[in-house]
Amino acid sequence: MTDPAVPRHNLRIDGKRLWDSLMSMAEIGATPKGGVRRLTLTEVDKRGRDRFRALCEAAGLTVRVDAIGNMFARREGRDPARQPVLFGSHLDSQPSGGKFDGALGVMAGLEVMRSLNDLGIVTEAPVELVNWTDEEGSRFGHSLMGSGVWAGVYELDHARALTDPEGISVGAALDGIGYNGDAPAAAFPADAYFELHIEQGPILEREGKTIGIVTGAQAQVWYDAVVIGQDSHAGTTPPSTRKDALVGAARIIDLVDRMMRARGEDGRGTVGQLVVLPNSRNVIPGEVRFSVEFRHPDETEIDRIDAQFPREAGFIARDCGVKLELTRLFRIPAQPFDPDCVALVRQATEQLGYTAREIVSGAGHDAVYVARHVPTAMIFTPCKDGLSHNEAEEIKPEEAEAGGQVLFSAVLARANRVV
Amino acid sequence: MTDPAVPRHNLRIDGKRLWDSLMSMAEIGATPKGGVRRLTLTEVDKRGRDRFRALCEAAGLTVRVDAIGNMFARREGRDPARQPVLFGSHLDSQPSGGKFDGALGVMAGLEVMRSLNDLGIVTEAPVELVNWTDEEGSRFGHSLMGSGVWAGVYELDHARALTDPEGISVGAALDGIGYNGDAPAAAFPADAYFELHIEQGPILEREGKTIGIVTGAQAQVWYDAVVIGQDSHAGTTPPSTRKDALVGAARIIDLVDRMMRARGEDGRGTVGQLVVLPNSRNVIPGEVRFSVEFRHPDETEIDRIDAQFPREAGFIARDCGVKLELTRLFRIPAQPFDPDCVALVRQATEQLGYTAREIVSGAGHDAVYVARHVPTAMIFTPCKDGLSHNEAEEIKPEEAEAGGQVLFSAVLARANRVV
Questions:
Q1: Cβ of B237 under 8 Å from any chain A Cβ?
Q2: Model's pTM, two decimal places?
Q3: Distance between CA atoms of residues A22 and A70, nearest Å
Q4: CB of A128 closer than 8 Å to CB of A73
Q5: Alpha-carbon dihedral sign for residues B97, B99, B101, B102
Q6: Is the separation of the CB atoms in A325 and A245 below 8 Å?
Q7: What end-to-end distance do the CA atoms of chain B give, in Å?
Q8: How is domain B219-332 classified at the CATH fold level?
Q9: Is CATH 3.40.630.10 what the domain over A15-217+334-415 is classified as, yes or no?
Q10: Which of A102, A104, A287, A77 is nearest to A190 (CA)?
Q11: Within B95-194, where are the H helices?
Q12: Cβ of B257 under 8 Å from any chain A Cβ?
């Protein structure tokens, strides 16, 4: 008899079956350029959910749906008193999304369940595979909605009242596709949560690592900036009287980049969105509106940035003779993952012999909100050229298999641990 | 008997009549915010033209229209062998334009004619007041169209085939409002051209000068720039692998400003239009498209800029790991005005006792094209806060009168000069 606390790394998932299930799910909402458009709570999402439910039920799982549409597919364990080990991700996509963002974690979770069945394993604790609603936020403007409501970050009523550009509410959309579930949309006691996801960045690929052992999520601070100058004629206005909002904005963009680079490879600082008014060749811009965000694994660096950036950006604006209105939209604290859960991922990776590195998640993930209530860890796998949120998103079958295998081993170890 | 070669500066225009005629013209196409929308060759422009023609005919002038819609209102001189002295500007406006841009030069020209009548003056040379078609270029995308065709800068057929966003051609629009004239749209021999215009910049107001003696128009070079980087996730992409097109663009915008300022108060360098792709908060910009223009009174400075800017912008792009595609759209040579005509403006200004300074036109004007064929000068008057192409454009009645008075004196001196 084997010791249930020791993961048995000769137990293998079926990599080909995992890949086939990924390719099959990618047919739902497939785009001509090889990507996926499976916007949350649409008819296409319903087809993905229906397929997922059918596959779960065929694997003997019991599916329940909560009031924000999160789906939980449960496999009972030997000990009914134990809290479940959760794992999963999301099946919704960006408008021009890829085949693997979210779907990898869900379909690999299904493969974990199928492999447990094949291997005749009854875990000590029950296990539950989750499909979180609306991770992407593309339709209703609110990312991590399902996990956010579940974790109590957002009120259920607030989330259900959000509307898409056509005025359809989340509540109406849930009713429309039949996923307005009976289960309460609130955190329940759980033993752990594991999420496998593509990295959505270039680090693992560049370093030739198969697995990213995710130790936590970055702290973030986001701002809206408006630089106000004075529209005037580009040909007649001399340098001394110009109040060029775009020159001011340009120097603040440069500041964001320099502040990022001063913090080395862990720094993140981005101006992603920028609009110029009146945006005419012949007119000195009178107003520029743009977004600013900084991220760092170390929260004290975000504290420093949040003190330094508004001050230095203000100096630049003053030097340029323009006015800066800076609004801090939000700060997200760093979210370290649970050391025991992270250790299980590390242990599985080592015992399976995969190359790996520790990594901090730069993107937001459902796991970040779940981690507020449940011991959590994430597993990253590489993606080609670091591309995601893009129809060209690509991973290799062996990368999907490695990620699924680590997920399987970590879940099994956690569900069978001696408590 | 007075010597006709000596301007008689006791001869005065009627400042109140000029202001009333400006306010009356401003009613045609008046906007709620106090500006004017009199787009070229529309029904509103027709009403302005019809009013102008009626006022000219009431003043005893003979109006002819050429094949691009330019209107010439002629007052005969004593000597039929002499070439006419031309003066005028344009009655069309920007979509949200002001009451004075163009209209000042035309209505002041009418006041010159009326004052000649009142004073019983028969000039030696004939005089002609011009309303050039489509100076603004807002409707058909081609500024200085009427004067450009007249001067041979553009082909008549090319201009008549241009279409507005609704697909209506210049030719059809001319027919539609009845201003497809019989006269050839081509330069004819003329003795001089004078144009009074608001400065559209802040220099005269700032220095407290009543009159700008315009010595010429700036040389210009215009570029289209495209910076190409790589879209990627703002949270996951580390500094070393970023190819941020907006950071590259920002540093090139800073370069444009620095190159302008290195040339002192005569320098002009502007990025007026800029678009970011994909323009999402969360995505490092993969592409930025923007306009660049430089102007300088001294053509050799534009030569230097045209050598320096592409090279230095290329260095910046290389440093930022992005690609720069720079297209030179056009170069406009500096256009010095005729020294004798400029001297007449200077002389009139001095004899009338107005404060004045010499100035180079930063904006394009019909006078710049006319100057290729006819000895030309311009007169500037201040405008409030240097604002133009804006409904808030404003001048004072005494400023209009001073400009009109200088125009009258210069025209009279030129038309009566001994040849």
A1: yes
A2: 0.79
A3: 20
A4: yes
A5: positive
A6: no
A7: 19
A8: Alpha-Beta Plaits (3.30.70)
A9: yes
A10: A77
A11: 103-118, 145-150, 156-161, 170-177
A12: yes
Tens of each residue's pLDDT in chain A, 419 residues:
344 444 455 799 999 999 999 999 999 999 999 999 999 999 999 999 999 999 999 999 999 999 999 999 999 999 999 999 999 999 999 888 999 999 999 999 999 999 999 999 999 999 999 999 999 988 998 889 999 999 999 999 999 999 998 999 999 999 999 999 999 999 999 999 999 999 998 899 999 999 999 999 999 999 999 999 998 889 989 999 999 999 999 999 999 999 999 999 999 999 999 999 988 888 899 999 999 999 999 999 999 999 999 999 999 999 999 999 999 988 888 999 999 999 999 999 999 999 999 999 988 899 999 999 999 999 999 999 888 878 889 999 999 999 999 999 999 999 999 98
Nearest Cα of chain A lies from the Cα of B125 at a distance, in angstroms, of: 34
Q: What dihedral do alpha carbons A68, A73, A76, A79 form, nearest 10°?
A: -40
- φ/ψ of A275, rounded to 5, equals -130, 135
Closest CB from B244, B293, B386 relative to A232: B386
Give the Cβ contact number of residue B2 at 10 Å: 9
Listed by start position, the domains of chain A span: 15-217+334-415, 219-332
CA distance A140 to chain B (A): 15
Q: How far apart are CA B318 and CA B315, in angstroms?
A: 5
> Which ipTM was obtained for this model?
0.79
